[in-house]
Each structure stands twice: as C-alpha cells, then as structure tokens.
Amino acid sequence: MSSKFQPVLIIGGSGVVGSQAAKIIRRLHPKLPIAIGGRDVGKAEAVAREVGNAIGVSVDLARPDLGFGHEPRFSAVVIFLKDEKLSSMRYAQRHGIPYISLSSGTFEVGPEMAQYIHAPDKAPILLASHWLAGAAIFPILEFAKAYEAIDTIRIGVLLDEQDMGGPAALADYNRITGLAPAALTVKDGKLHWAGGEDSKARYRSVDGVELDAVAYSPFDVMALSARTNAGNIRLDLAYSESASRRRGEPFSTEIVIEIAGRGRDGERLNHRHEIVHPAGQAPLTALGVALAVERMLGLAGGDASAPGLYLPEVLIDPAYYVRRMKEFGASFAERSLMAAE
Fold first, then answer.
1. b/e map 102-114, b = 16+ CB within 10 Å
2. Is 87 in contact with 96 (CB distance < 8 Å)?
3. I need a surface site. Which of 123, 191, 220, 270 has the fewest CB within 10 A?
C-alpha cells in the first residue's frame, strides 16, 4: 500500500528528533519513501542511509519552491523548525499535500491560521505544536473517558536539562519562553494568561521530589479547553533533573497528569497519572509525528485527510495513540488522589 506514495519530506529530518521520527515512520511503514531535508545535504544523506528507502535533500526555506522546482515531488511535508516565511506551508498548499507543523507557540499561531484561511481548499494543515507532539493530550483524552464531567486538568511536564535535543528545539524553547507575554491557562472557566508570580508553580516528580516549575502553553491547553470544557486547565514545565538521573541513570522525560471531576457513576474522581519514557523527550515527539503522518496519508485510522485545518486529537484515536506510546517504551502509572481532597 505504502509504495504508491512519493516521499514524505521531513524538514529538519537530520536533527535529533527528526531522525528518530523518520526511523519510527520506517518501522511502522517499511515501504513508505522518505526524504530527509536539511541545510547540510551530507548529514541528511547519512541519516537517509540509516533509515533506508530514503533520500537526503537540501532544503532552502528562503525560496518559494524550497529549492525543488515546480514539479510535485513529495506526498507530505513535516517541519521540525520555525519557518518564519511559511515557505514550507505555502509549498504544501501549492501542491495539495498534507503539512505538519510542530514549532509554534500558542501566542504565535496567527500567521499559520491566516495562511490557511486564505487558501482553505488547497491542503490538509495539521498544527501539532502540543507537548511532545501529543504525548500529554492523547493520554488525557483517554483518561477522560472515565469522567462524566471534568473540573480540573493539571499537567506537569519535566524536561531534563540534558534532554533539550538539537539546535532547533533549543531555538524554539528560547523563542517561546523569551517572547511569550504569558502562558495560556484556563481558570474558573475563563481563558487566563498567567505571568509573573502567577506563572510560578511546583512540580512533584515521579519519585516525590518537588521542583520549581513555570506555566507553559503549548497547544494542549487551548485544545483541552475546546474538547473537555474543564473549568481549570494548566500545564507547568520543570526544566530540571529527572528522577532517573537522580538515581544515577540516564535522563528520562516525565508527564504527570491530575484530573478531577465527576465519574460516570456520579461519584467524585480524582486521579494522578504518571508517564515516563526512559529515553527522554525525543522518542515520544518522534512517535507523535509518525502517527500524524500515517493518519494524514490514510495509512492508519481512516481515509487520507481532506483539505482543512486540524489539530492531531481530531484525527487520531486516543486509545490507539496511547497503545503506540506503550509499544514504543512509555510506562504508565496511576493512583487515586481521593484521600487528598
């Protein structure tokens, strides 16, 4: 089935996360061709050889054709870095192919939305700048099935200081934390931008150690507000040492989710869920991208996506996503917090 496609272009595919995404796509779909795109074609070609059934290509975001001319060459475009000119999005629209974006902060999503609105029938556009491309929101939506109504969703994420990834990830982190006026939260049913003292928080790691954290707003907060109608939603980021490294092991990444509300039986329900990947953030981000690619191309979960503007959670089944997370190394633990109320 996959052999009918032209290559999926992964811009930034020779980076830490991009290369892992290519390898996961290859594992899920052995016949799907891939183009590893980057400024250093030699590095891109080296990654392509590792991936197999792939090519390395040079990408020039300063050119409307990305340096590829005007003939159709790809089946989809994935970009792991901030494209300030939106050249890659316009390229996908011009050729009518899926586009997956990963690097926008909530406060800077306007240009991509405007570009879509002015060409709504051209291509399917997926805005996937969620935490680790969906590693928090999909488990939350799966856990939410146990609730009749949700009052509070509290998300704590830990990014180990040794686990930033490559230069593109660092640039995104510095840009978003440096330029964002505040972090989007939901407080008492209202959208609320938390800044200054209001943005400070404490994160309790999976080993019980408390760390300083700060409110952060990837797309999860606004997406969960739309999907769950919870009255309070907040995501706090701790950029610190992971529990595994405190034990003398390599760094890991942690996602802690607390959901409070009314269960299907009408009783109060308050659970804490702890998700850990022992290899850090890159495998989970890469998996999220791979699942988005396969879904938009119609390789899993339904037909290929029609032109439109999408968030991942409207396309991918949460149970399937969580199952894949476990298959690719994430561990899940749960405990009731009822005694703490």
1. bbbbbeeeeebee
2. no
3. 191
Residues 274 and 142 in one domain: yes
- What sign results for the dihedral spanned by CA atoms 104, 110, 116, 119? negative
Tokens of 120: 């709504």
How far apart, in whole angstroms, are the C-alpha atoms of residue 266 and residue 44?
Answer: 55
pLDDT in tens, 290-334: 999 999 999 999 999 999 999 999 999 999 999 999 999 999 999
* Residue range of the domain that includes 332: 133-280+320-340
SS3 112: helix
Give the CATH number for residue 185.
3.30.360
- What's the number of CA atoms in the CB half-sphere (13 Å) around residue 276? 16
| 119, 156: one domain | no
Q: How many CB atoms lie within 10 A of CB 197?
A: 6
Q: CA dist 316 to 28, 209, 248, 306, Å?
A: 15, 34, 37, 14
What's the total number of domains in the chain? 2
Distance from chain centroid for Cα 308: 19
Residues 200, 118 within the same domain: no
Run means of pLDDT, 10 residues per run, the chain, 341 residues = 81 96 97 96 97 97 96 97 96 98 92 97 98 98 98 98 82 76 93 95 97 96 97 97 97 98 96 98 97 98 98 98 98 80 40
Please write the tens of the pLDDT for every residue from 121-136: 999 999 999 999 999 9
Structure tokens that stand for 88 in this block: 């890659």
According to DSSP, the β-strands at 99-101 and 124-127 are parallel
